[in-house]
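for ur thesis appendix - Cyclase family protein. copy paste whatever u need, i formatted it the way the template wanted (i think)
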Amino acid sequence: MTLDRTDPEGSIARTAKACSNWNRWGEDDVLGTLNFLDEAKRREGAALIRRGTSFSLSQRFDIDGPQKGWRKRTNPVHTMLDTGTDAALGNQGLPHGIGGADDVIAMPLQCSTQWDGLGHIFDHGKAWNGRPAEQVVTSDGDQVTGIEHMAPHVAGRGVLLDVGRVVGEDGELPDGFAITEEHLAATAEAHGVRVGRGDIVLVRTGQLARVRRDGWGDYAGGPAPGLSFTTAGWLHGSEIAAIATDTWGFEVRPNEFEHAFQPLHQVAIPHIGLLIGEMWDLDALAEDCATDGEYAFWLTAAPLPITGAVGSPVNPIAVK
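the 3d part is after this line
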């Protein structure tokens, strides 16, 4: 794909038309590319478990997270409702010596490791499958493609593409590095792994490792390595079920067009119907893959079935 940095509007429109999956699975579809992840693909993924070693791919959910308040996104606030002190003092009103602890958490659904639902991004007032955005997401939430519909489906063959290790220096890509289809293909070849229909693809840039070492800085919303807008055709043509990165915004930042904001999101979610994950912790998994040379594994990453939500926290588990 040729990138005209001065024409975001035209480029987005042309790419959206070329990569559209509207009505591919019928006018009532609520799953998008998760339709590619079928029972056979799950059996294929399950067969990859050899050692039984598991990895959580989630960042922590706590007050020390990366959020800085952009679009009212804050870090989680965890509050105890009952504690061991309450139990020791005997003021919980419970019989025969039993005590307990309870807690509550307040947080935006996209403040740490998460999925973007199909109702998260619109293009010129259109949501996934060409539906009018105002008829999909209202003040009561996503009335059509709420993320609860995806909860049973996100489990299958995961593939790690450690672009930071293959293309970058010291395992990391610099901020502003645009990952192209060629970079993805070269990484898959270096790993000896194929990527295809129904796969859940994880792209490691190394940015999370860097901010853990140097401090959060502008991790949430600032410059970052990420996928180039030119990968839209690959995202569509490869027929992957989902993709996630270790960055805040999935695509390269600053974006590649003048006066644009997240143009790849504008194509991938409402037109391709692609499930996108962000802020995943891929470092421990990447080290293990580099050690044993195996970059495909069983992955389960169900969103919380929050009715009407346009995104969800997730604790993805990779098993090798």
